[in-house]
Amino acid sequence: MYRQAYYDEDFLNQFNTGNDFYMDDVEDSYPESIRRKSLKLPDVRSVDVSRHFTRLSEMNYSVDLGMYPLGSCTMKFNPKYANYAASLPDFRDIHPMESQLKTQGTLEVMYNMQQFLVKISGMDYATLQPSAGAHGELTGILIVRKYFETRGEIDKRNEIIIPDSAHGTNPASAVMAGFKVVEVPSNENGLVDLEALKAAVNENTAAFMITNPNTLGIFDDQISEIATIIHNNGSLLYYDGANFNAILGITTPGKMGFDIVHFNLHKTFATPHGGGGPGAGPVAVKSFLMDFLPVPIVVNDKGTYSLFYGLKNSIGKVSSYNGSFGVVLRAFSYVLKNGNNLSANAKRAVMNSNYMAKKLSKYYKIPYKQLKKHEFVLSTENTGRKALDISKFILDYGIHSPTTYFPLIVKEAMMIEPTESVTKKDMDYYIDVMEKALSVPEEELKQSPVNTSVHRIDEIGAARNLILKWPAPTENH
Amino acid sequence: MYRQAYYDEDFLNQFNTGNDFYMDDVEDSYPESIRRKSLKLPDVRSVDVSRHFTRLSEMNYSVDLGMYPLGSCTMKFNPKYANYAASLPDFRDIHPMESQLKTQGTLEVMYNMQQFLVKISGMDYATLQPSAGAHGELTGILIVRKYFETRGEIDKRNEIIIPDSAHGTNPASAVMAGFKVVEVPSNENGLVDLEALKAAVNENTAAFMITNPNTLGIFDDQISEIATIIHNNGSLLYYDGANFNAILGITTPGKMGFDIVHFNLHKTFATPHGGGGPGAGPVAVKSFLMDFLPVPIVVNDKGTYSLFYGLKNSIGKVSSYNGSFGVVLRAFSYVLKNGNNLSANAKRAVMNSNYMAKKLSKYYKIPYKQLKKHEFVLSTENTGRKALDISKFILDYGIHSPTTYFPLIVKEAMMIEPTESVTKKDMDYYIDVMEKALSVPEEELKQSPVNTSVHRIDEIGAARNLILKWPAPTENH
Amino acid sequence: MSETDEILDYLNVKSVDGLFSDIPDRLKVSLDLGKPMDEFSTIRAIEDTGRKNKAGNMNFLGNGIYDRFVPPLVDEIIGRNEFLTSYTPYQPEISQGILHSLFEYQSIISDLTEMDITNSSMYDGFTSLAEAVRMAYRINGKSEVLIPENIYKSQLSIIKNYTEGLNLKIITYGFGTDGLLDLEDLKSKVTSDTSAIIVENPNVFGLIDENAFHVSEIKKDSILITYYDPVSLGFIIPPGEYGTDIAVAEGQQLGIHMNYGGPLLGLFSFKKEYVHRSPGRLIGLSKDSEGKKAFVMTLQAREQHIRRSRAMSNICSNQALLAVASLAYLSIMGSEGLRKIALITMNKSRKLKNNMKSAGIKPVFDGINFSDNLFYFDRLEILESNNISGGIRLSSISEYNGYGNASFFSVTEKTGDENIEKLAKILGD
Amino acid sequence: MSETDEILDYLNVKSVDGLFSDIPDRLKVSLDLGKPMDEFSTIRAIEDTGRKNKAGNMNFLGNGIYDRFVPPLVDEIIGRNEFLTSYTPYQPEISQGILHSLFEYQSIISDLTEMDITNSSMYDGFTSLAEAVRMAYRINGKSEVLIPENIYKSQLSIIKNYTEGLNLKIITYGFGTDGLLDLEDLKSKVTSDTSAIIVENPNVFGLIDENAFHVSEIKKDSILITYYDPVSLGFIIPPGEYGTDIAVAEGQQLGIHMNYGGPLLGLFSFKKEYVHRSPGRLIGLSKDSEGKKAFVMTLQAREQHIRRSRAMSNICSNQALLAVASLAYLSIMGSEGLRKIALITMNKSRKLKNNMKSAGIKPVFDGINFSDNLFYFDRLEILESNNISGGIRLSSISEYNGYGNASFFSVTEKTGDENIEKLAKILGD
Q1: How confident is the model at residue D2 (pLDDT cuts 50, 70, 90)?
Q2: What are phi and psi of D406, to 5 degrees?
Q3: What is the rounded distance in angstroms from the CA atom of residue D98 to the CA atom of residue B272?
Q4: What CATH number has the domain spanning B343-462?
Q5: Which is nearest to B109 in space by CA: B86, B131, B132, B83?
């Protein structure tokens, strides 16, 4: 039995309880010409701010409440020692332009994290600057662009090939960096269709962007052949690291033949996702691309760390300062602590995924019958029930639904990634609920969820009657 | 509308998910003769520990969720800056026997807190050693004892007089310190019956223990006369500080003629109550009792602070080390920040109490029609409904009930202390709920609460079939 | 039988390695990251590394990131497990907490800027600025963007990276000797091809730029993008009041620690007619099937996970948690609190300029500074020997041609008056 | 109209002062506590004061309070608003979170000690010991209590304070030259008047006291009170296994920071037949009206708020939050974790004794030490000049007659091997 908390919570600008943040009076002798006429921030006491957010938080699901098997999101446990590390004033209260002499600790963490990522990916150099996975993709593709620019080929090399099973960020990032996107279909096994790929690859091909295992959770063992096709064409091979948790310590993009990799620290390296962010999306490259990385990178000269700007073909900057150091520090803590045991996490994640896939295959169709890696995709089509309805039904049991309707190549898709942080008991419970979703009357399914804070929400109405801001406060009498 | 979260939460020893707190192997070469045969702590992963307590916490009401008007408990907002202060490693990671040269910061806080309390109470010296209010009472009464011992009067002075409206800890503490308790009834105004007091005071009287304002929230303006009666008899006057929030910065026990005072830092000084504790119960005394204080006290010699043990009639120790410094530091932060504005808190608390009393007097009988201080007591007797039922009904609205069935001299009592941390809106909502409790059918009242995690609990069954420990874990298969 | 054994049994494999048979052996690797550590040793190692940082309390660094007071209540709120460890609210029924909060964030930033709509966050200030340029291009398809001549190099670099392939021409406009933007110069450069004009206020020189208030009068059909300082809006005229179409800023000052410059918070607001061209996530207010107030992510068809290569942006993860931090910060401070913090900042800048002047170090401009102050001072070795942080050279962060040997000293409400006096004394000696 | 004005209006008073007309003017005061401060200045002032503490990392202090590793998860759990800012669960229906947790605390400490029942916490170890003496007296009404000759002065002082008025005679028993309690001496002092025997294990000398395992054989009708070290129970035979009637301890080591010695956590367990004579709160398992598992405070009739002067104790506020901390700590560590921590502690003690011996500083006893180690060493000035914390003199904390110039050096799992070596080297020089 489960029941999420519900509070009929007002907007903060409706409280009118009187601000109580005490400060002494301040001299004001500035001209009217620069002064704003009025400012209407909420007028609320600290106690009410505290209560407001405590109540709201209880209306929010999270990893710290239970299983959260969103496919491709790797919602593993976020260890508290990493939060502790990120709370240390020695790291937290450092200005990004502080002298390098005074920030050796910070630079050491960054350097060591670069090296960790290089080893984990089988690449040669890394930048920590991108703010999120998609930002890493953009950075990687800008590196591709700059690479072909310096070779005088950019006018010709204006296409990026992407599989139809790819994450939506891949094509979006490619376009932002000024490329055209060419989509190649998957074959009947859910893998890259080599013939289709060969047909798509030509003189215009700048790069091929893929993730392996792909969004179906399947490892594409043609990868070396793919790399040969791409490299023989003078193109680059880009690794989307969203699914890295499957291969951590097992294989590397470097071994597979990739030239550029991005990481999602908030997935593979267990940093908390914060309701949508912040994340961090470092990028690693083979040595021939090092010169194109964003500046600065951190270098180590016999234990003295410094920011190195001397990459003459650098793409420059992709984020305001030095990247999401607060996130990097958490991920660094995670890697430092687990060390070579990290592969055990990958193994357990893969084991859990295969367990759920096999169990659920009794009730749901699982296309592309193969060994799964960290995640798998099932279709509810065979059950006559909508993935949407089942996803809402699941919520009623105090657990979060899988990613739904992705990847696009599977109808009524549910994409399930249990991660290593769940137990057999968690999975069995989840499987029971998914079985139950097929046995309850259709009507009950359609009415779910009923145990969550609110019931099913009118999403179409939200878009049609767009309300993106609270109403002005009602006057207090 | 309100609904508290509910999780059907297992006991930790039922998880069996496998402990994952990594440590290297450890050498073990100790004899069998000292080794325990088995140890059965829960076998659970950190992620499950985190989830367990996150879920449990959502099934718990707190000040950070809303109004909590437990009479005599002073559930005011616990400011976060005070928590922050208590989290500083410079204070938190200090051993109690650390050299005084290395703990000048800690000693300075303690000294300054002693001085704050001395000023606030109109006393001369203070000890921070007692761990809670009742512990402060015991300490105070042990001082009374020692005082009469040194005067050779202890065989005779073996009684403590206590009003019938007193907190239950008062008689319990007096008895623990080896005294007999003599109870005096309140008069028709809820105040000390002077004639009864005079009749009770005699050569056996060691002290009179009272709180002012008393548990009815009424300030006893006979206090100076009372002090004269007690002092003329050679007895001591003890101030129970549980209700200090009413008089903070308005008057002092010193002015009123008291000799000994205890404080509840977790009430008056806004330190969090932690679901029952820890608290802290410092004691302050007039200078003629200084020599009896527990040792050590902190003294200041031109900015150098030290622990002073040289009180030759000290009662010795009442707690293991130096008292609840972590609690003292929070309270110190609160006093430091508010300074002379503390009296504004007292005033607002009293204003709120009178507002609620007047509003509620339309529906409930409020005995002893007088000005209230920080709290007041109503009786549900006139409504034909039980205080118990109304208190359960209140819970259904996401707010906590008042203290019920106390003080004992009022039938069907509800004791309400809003504190300064609530707004008019909070109080109006509360009053509406208490009004509504009289208009819903009796049956509905009896069935409440229904919006809380669990419904009404069988308390008699709990005592009859005593289960104070979880069952042994069921084997995992 | 352990859980693992039970599962492997069920899967009919002898060991977990059997689940990796699809990965060719020649691709397999083993890690070289060191031995696992216990939790205490991990923490001790990180604390020891942290102690190698030696930032002192004479801190005059700013230029976009500021050491402002973060109320502990803010840290506590964003430390709540339910916010911290949740994902993007794809299932809104079980995620009302973060949705409600982000909706309020959108609202409070809209109120602060007096703009119509604010999205639910971007990575940081500079990428927000670049996304604003892209958005302007999507709106009007025009080919030129006008930027201040003193723009930070980093801002410019990111704009260039973000507009690869758009064929946008970047044109700079100048500044007067008073340090304010040159309205005449700007006016002369606005053409029918102008897609957007970027204005910064306070500008890169740290001045509250009164000329910025008049750019809308000369902008013609172009989009006015204002890069503002959110704390300054506690006192200064907000972008919405002077004709801004897209207002962007760095939100770090609003309750977020410096963290060596990240994670940050991009504030992104715009006029409502442009909503369908805007990047990022939007939280909308709706109702549930029982009529209760309920929030959802809306207009998702603009986003990459639906529209893929035709999306308004590639942004997916954003800075939701920090958006909540800024909401909490602004609510705690309130209008009066933010006003005072803005005023204290301006007063401290004035005091700094006065003290420096008295010590013989000339401010480059006479105008009203917010946090950043530019001085004719280049003996940076004095700073190091006195353990003072500050003195960022204009030439190191901007291509601006002039005042080459001038450098910045920045203040916040936390800057001690005694430190200001000490700084002037040391530098004047 | 402000809230205050509205309320005053309703109350028919001109100002709030009108609500204090019942307090005679001659009693009125005004505060002299200083001006109010803003939050930032308050925090800065406290941080500055904190920096006046100078504890280094050469820490060999123990004797009851230990610098053990506190997993950040423990701090996070007890920092949850819903636990931290709640009161004693007088309304159980809305307080199941803390009740469930405290019930689990009772259970886990009972499992750890192998005792039947544990209450939901006491103030600290020493007051628990004193309460145990009072409880024994309530059980059998006898007039003598036997205590170890080396008992801490503080323990003794608190026992005396807590038994004022009981007319209990306190009698000490001795120790052998091996540092273990003298069973013969103890046996000779047990009479039909003996109310209780207090045994400490590890004892005050820091030794695991194997003789303690045999006291139940000679205790006759008296109550055996064992004062134990909860971390030692990760490896050592628990009190319940050797006939203990009441087991008490200081729980600070279980996930609670030292905090200069408070707040602490009193662990208090006993045999089930004595439950009605026990002090403190008890949480019981029951059902709600729908049959769901539900928890309540039970047997409250023993407590002061019901029974007043005839209560089992005056305790009201206890240490609930820290009880939850210890529960979280033990759950995180698990049996294997606690075993390792106990073993590491013993191994470090052995290493310390070996290194000290090699450096010419003789341990007073050869037995197996847990955390505390007593050495013939009194040149305490060396410690200060080398910034070493430790070297508590036996004579300063116990009245024990002998080993007058011996002092303690204590270890935990956090004590670095390099610090042990350094200590021996410095002290041996």
Answers
A1: confident
A2: -90, 155
A3: 14
A4: 3.90.1150.10
A5: B86
pLDDT at D258: 98
Using one digit for the tens of pLDDT, what is the confidence trace for B230-258?
999 999 999 999 999 999 999 999 999 99
- In terms of C-beta distances under 8 Å and separation of at least 24 residues, what long-range contacts does D403-407 make, across chains too? D403/D364, D403/D374, D403/D376, D405/D376, D405/D377, D405/D378, D406/D364, D406/D374, D406/D375, D406/D376, D406/D377, D406/D378, D407/D374, D407/D375, D407/D377, D407/D378, D407/D380
The answer on D110 and D226 residing in a single domain is yes
- Residue A80 contacts C where some CB pair is shorter than 8 Å: no
CATH number corresponding to B81-340: 3.40.640.10
Cβ neighbourhood burial of A98 (10 Å; 0-12, 13-18, 19+): buried
B475: confidence class by pLDDT, cuts 50, 70, 90:
low
Domain C-terminal end among C329, C352, C381: C329
Nearest CB neighbour to A64, from listed B2, B6, B50: B50
Instruction: Report which DSSP code applies to B470.
Output: P
The CATH code for residues A344-462 is 3.90.1150.10
Which whole-number Å values give the CA distances from B268 to A227, B73, B165, B247, D25, in the listed order?
71, 9, 20, 10, 23
CA distance C416 to D45: 13
Closest CA to A417 of A284, A244, A278: A244
pLDDT per residue as tens digits for the range A379-399: 999 999 999 999 999 999 999
ipTM of the complex: 0.97
Contact A261, A284 (CB under 8 A): yes
Angle between helices C96-113 and A46-57 (to 10 degrees): 140
Hey, which bits of C254-314 come out as E strands? 266-270, 282-287, 293-298
* Residue C409 domain flag: yes
Mutation for D interface: C47, C51, C69, C417, most D CBs within 10 A: C69
In angstroms, the CA B172 to CA D312 distance is: 8
Last residue of a domain, one of C329, C364, C379: C329
Q: Alpha-carbon distance D233 to D248, whole Å? A: 13
| pLDDT attached to residue D405 | 86
Query: b/e per residue, B318-334, with b = 16+ CB within 10 A?
Result: bbbbbbbbbbbbbbbbb
Q: Is the dihedral of CA C269, C273, C278, C282 positive or negative?
A: positive
Residues belonging to chain B: 477
Chain D residues touching residue B256 (CB < 8 angstroms): 27
Residues 330-369 of A with CB under 8 A from B: 337, 341
The pLDDT of residue A475: 52
Q: Per the domain annotation, does D256 fall within a domain?
A: yes
Which of A2, A66, A425 is facing B6, going by the closest CB pair? A2
Strand partners for A365: A379
Find chain B residues with C-beta within 8 A of C76's C-beta.
80, 83
Q: Residues 6 or more apart from B108 whose CB is under 8 A from it?
A: B305, D49, D52
Average pLDDT over residues C259-280: 97
**Which residues does chain A have with pLDDT short of 70?**
474-477
Q: What residue ranges do the domains of chain A occupy?
A: 12-57, 81-340, 344-462
Are the Cβ atoms of A131 and C76 closer than 8 angstroms? no
Range 21-50 of A in CB contact (< 8 A) with B? 22, 45-48, 50
Contact A80 D82 (CB under 8 A): no
Looking at residue B291, the DSSP 8-state letter turns out to be G
Altogether, the residues listed in chain A come to a count of: 477
* CB-based burial, B439-457: b 16+ in 10 Å, e otherwise: eeeeeebebbbbbbbbbbb
**Which residues of chain B have a CB within 8 Å of the CB of C82?**
54
Euclidean distance between CA atoms B21 and A44, whole angstroms? 43
Mean pLDDT of chain D: 96
Q: Is C389 in the same domain as C269?
A: no
